[in-house]
Amino acid sequence: MPAQDLSMISLVVNASLLAQAVMALLLVLSLMSWTFIFRKLFGIRRARIQTERFERDFWSGGDLQSLYQSAVNNRHHTGALERIFESGMREYLKAVEKRISDPSAILDGARRAMRAAYQREMDSLESNLAFLASVGSVSPYIGLFGTVWGIMNAFRGLSNVQQATLANVAPGIAEALVATAIGLFAAIPAVVAYNRFAHDIDRLAIRFESFIEEFSNILQRQIH
């Protein structure tokens, strides 16, 4: 009996239609997750660099009005923390122009504006993280479904064979296990990336919240 080709490509080509559909779905999920991984990797790196640059400029003792004008004039090139600062400073300047006499009202308005900007920036940073989490949790089960279906077909095929041997069932089982392998290939990078990005975003969130509190204290001193 000639040896059967058990290469990866041959196993995928010879798999059942449902198994091929499962593999195709997993490959699409893997491709999408890798796309989001690289986008998020560069996006978080850019946000970290912009945050460090603005913190350096802010704490260098420069004039707040100059920093605000710079943020307004270069709005399309500012980072997340700079946009949070711009929102708070804009609300503060509006309150000063309106000659609001209540210091707490001025400070509360600036703090609310910064909090709203903070939420927008966090929503942007956390975009697509839910997709990576879903791929990481669902892909192994999708692959397992394809494996179970393939093994069922392999054993069902033994009913047409007079003498069942390992050579008869091995190709079918190998085809089925390919689905599990592709599922793990899609899931593992997504899980690792999700955990890493979630940690990096949490660290940025802490820096943003700390800045909001520190800048609020600065505004409070200016008001009084």
Automatic annotation (TrEMBL):
Q: InterPro entries of this UniProt entry?
A: ExbB/TolQ_transport, MotA_ExbB_proton_chnl, Tol-Pal_TolQ
Which segment of the chain is annotated as a signal peptide?
Answer: none
Q: What processes does the entry annotate via GO biological process terms?
A: bacteriocin transport; cell division; protein import
UniProt keyword terms in alphabetical order: Cell cycle, Cell division, Cell inner membrane, Cell membrane, Membrane, Transmembrane, Transmembrane helix
* UniProt-listed NCBIfam families: tolQ
Summarize the protein's role: Part of the Tol-Pal system, which plays a role in outer membrane invagination during cell division and is important for maintaining outer membrane integrity.
Its recorded name reads Tol-Pal system protein TolQ
Natural source organism: Pandoraea thiooxydans
Q: Which gene encodes it?
A: tolQ
